[in-house]
Amino acid sequence: MDYSVLIDTCFMVGLLNANSIHHKNAKDYFRYFLDNDIPIYFSTISVAEYCIRGEYDTIPFEDVRILPFTLFDGKETGRFGQILYKARLEGILDKEERIAIPNDAKLFAQASIRPDIRYFVTSDVKAKKKIDIIRRDCGAQVAHLDISTPINVFSGQLDLED
Predict the structure, then answer these.
(1) Within a 13 Å sphere around the CA of 106, how many CA atoms are in the beta-carbon half?
(2) Is residue 134 packed enough to be buried (19+ CB in 10 Å), middle (13-18) or exposed (0-12)?
(3) pLDDT-derived band of residue 130, with 50, 70 and 90 as boundaries?
């Protein structure tokens, strides 16, 4: 494949927690990415979030590429944060959204400045609205990929299993 993906904390929780409602789909997506040689990035930001309730040693480091948060990511995050803050003031985003730069904006910035990352893969439905605003306002190319959609629908394959 000619692209890579950035998975977030929600994806990792779904993948590693057998009781998660997203477990099967997260496993299917993960297997699809591995089977199709699609590089999987996991940000240091998401590692920090995951370790709040998950165990560091359970993260499949052998299968994911760790993406450190850099100075350039910080600069782009500031721009994305401005866009999301403006959307909040205009009522496009819920007033309950945090005023401080959310981790989502940091992850979107990381993905957007790397031309190989095509999808931000998550089960967080609120992320789609934020990504759409950022894509509209600054032309970021990263797209939202919701793992609630089964992999066969995303990949265009028929589900032939019973």
Answers:
(1) 19
(2) buried
(3) confident
Please name which of 115, 100, 109 lies closest in space to residue 138, comparing C-alpha atoms.
109
Count CA atoms within 13 Å of residue 20 on its CB side: 19
Beta strand spans in 23-138 (E):
40-43, 65-67, 117-122
Q: Kindly report the average pLDDT of the chain as a whole number.
A: 90
Q: How many other C-beta atoms lie within 10 A of the C-beta of residue 74?
A: 13
State mean pLDDT over 49-77. Answer: 95
Sheet holding 143-146, edge to edge: 65-67, 40-43, 4-7, 117-122, 143-146
| CB 120 within 8 Å of CB 142 | yes
